[in-house]
Specification:
By secondary structure, the chain is an alpha/beta fold. It has 3 domains: 116 residues, 3-Layer(aba) Sandwich (D-Maltodextrin-Binding Protein, domain 2); 83 residues, D-Maltodextrin-Binding Protein, domain 2 (3-Layer(aba) Sandwich); 83 residues, 2-Layer Sandwich (Double Stranded RNA Binding Domain), CATH 3.30.160.40. The chain is 34% helix and 24% strand. It has a 5-stranded mixed beta sheet with strand order 2-1-3-10-4, with helices on both faces. Strands 7-6-8-5-9 form a 5-stranded mixed beta sheet, sandwiched between helices. A 3-stranded antiparallel beta sheet has the order 11-12-13. Helix 9 runs parallel beside helix 10. The longest helix has 17 residues.
Length: 314
C-alpha cells in the first residue's frame, strides 16, 4: 500500500466491478483516512467463453490473475464471489473478510414472465451450471437444458437470441440484485427446488496474509454471521472434494446460536439425488459441514459424484 491509497483488485466484468465498488463503499464508510481505487484485471475465466467451466479448469480461472497481482503487491486486496473460490489458496494469501451475504437463491428469468411451473413441456432453459442442470431435471425431467456461458449481461442477451430459442435462464439472484436488475427476476426459485451453490450471494476479500494494516481494515466490514454460514457450506463442499465438475448444493441458515445446514449431491441428469440436513451450534459450523458430508457419503454420495465426474469427462 502506498500512503493512504488502497488498491482493490477486481475482474473486469460489470458485476465484478459493481461488487468491488460495494466493498470500497463499505470500507470508505468504516474508515475515513484511506482512499480506495479499483484495478480491473481480466482473468482467464473471462476470456474463455465457449467451453463449460468443468472442462477448462473450474473455479480458479476467475481468480488466478488477481492472486498474482496480490503476490506481486500490485494490488492490496481482491474482491471475489465466494462461490468462485477454490479450497486451496496460494501460500502467503488468505481470505480475510466476508461482508454480509446478499440473497443466496437462484432466480429464473423467463420470456413471457412465466414461472418454472408455467413453462411448457420441453421448455428450453439456459444455464452453464451442472448444479442447476441436475436440479432442474430432477424437478422437471421434461425440460431441455441448454449450456450457456458468459457474464451476466451476455447471458441475459442470450435469453432473447433467436438461434438459441430459450424460454428462460437461471442466474444467481444476488448478481441481478447487485446490478440493480431485480425487476428482471421472474421467480426466486425455492430452496426445495434449487439448493444454491456453497457461498452463493457472498463476497470474499482476499489479501496478503502478513499485511496487518489491510487485515485490520478488512476486519471492519467482516460479518460474523456470514462467516459461520460459509464455514458450514464450505466445510461440506470441501469434504466432498466439490468443484465445477459435480452438482453439489449447500445452504446454511442461522437462528439464535444454532445453524442448520442442508446439502445435496446429484448426477447430471438429476435422476440420482441425495439430500439431507444437520443442525448444531454456530461455533461448530465447519465441523457440521464435514459431518453432513460424511453422512451423505455413507448414503452413497461418492458413487453419485463419481458418476457425475465420468459424465463430464466424456
Amino acid at each position: 500500500m502506498k500512503g493512504n491509497k488502497v488498491i482493490i483488485g477486481t475482474r473486469s466484468s460489470d458485476l465484478a466491478v459493481g461488487q468491488a465498488e460495494i466493498v470500497a463503499e463499505m470500507l470508505g464508510k468504516a474508515v475515513s483516512e484511506y482512499e480506495f481505487e479499483l484495478e480491473k484485471i481480466k482473468t482467464k475465466g473471462d476470456k474463455i467463453l465457449d467451453s463449460p467451466l468443468s472442462q477448462v479448469g473450474g473455479k480458479g480461472l476467475f481468480i488466478k490473475e488477481l492472486e498474482v497481482s496480490l503476490l506481486e503487491e500490485e494490488i492490496d486486496l481482491a474482491v471475489h464471489s465466494m462461490k468462485d473460490m477454490p479450497a486451496e489458496l496460494p501460500e502467503g494469501l488468505a481470505v480475510l473478510g466476508f461482508p454480509e451475504r446478499v440473497d443466496s437463491r437462484d432466480a429464473l428469468v423467463s420470456n413471457g414472465d412465466r414461472n418454472l411451473d408455467e413453462l411448457p413441456t420441453g421448455a428450453r432453459i439456459g444455464t452453464g451450471s451442472l448444479r442447476r442442470t441436475s436440479q432442474l431435471l430432477n424437478y422437471r425431467p421434461d425440460l431441455e437444458v441448454v449450456p450457456i456461458r458468459g457474464n451476466i449481461n451476455t447471458r441475459l442477451e442470450k435469453l432473447t437470441a433467436e438461434e438459441l430459442n430459450l424460454d428462460a435462464i437461471v442466474l444467481a439472484a444476488a448478481g441481478l440484485i447487485r446490478m440493480g436488475w431485480k425487476d428482471k427476476i421472474t421467480e426466486y426459485l425455492d430452496d426445495e427446488v434449487m439448493l444454491p451453490a456453497a457461498g452463493q450471494g457472498a463476497l470474499a476479500i482476499e489479501a496478503r496474509e502478513d499485511d496487518e494494516e489491510i487485515k485490520t481494515l478488512i476486519n471492519k466490514i467482516d460479518d460474523q454471521r456470514t462467516r459461520y454460514i460459509l464455514q458450514a457450506e464450505r466445510g461440506f463442499l470441501e469434504r466432498l472434494d466439490g468443484d465445477c465438475q459435480v452438482p453439489i448444493g449447500a445452504l446454511a441458515e442461522i437462528e439464535g446460536e444454532e445453524i442448520t445446514l442442508e446439502g445435496m449431491v446429484a448426477t447430471l441428469d438429476g435422476q440420482k439425488h441425495l439430500r439431507d440436513q444437520i443442525t448444531g451450534s454456530v461455533g461448530e459450523a465447519e465441523e457440521l459441514g464435514i459431518e453432513l458430508a460424511e453422512e451423505l457419503i455413507a448414503k452413497g454420495a461418492e458413487k453419485i459424484l463419481q458418476q457425475a465426474r465420468q459424465e463430464t469427462d466424456k
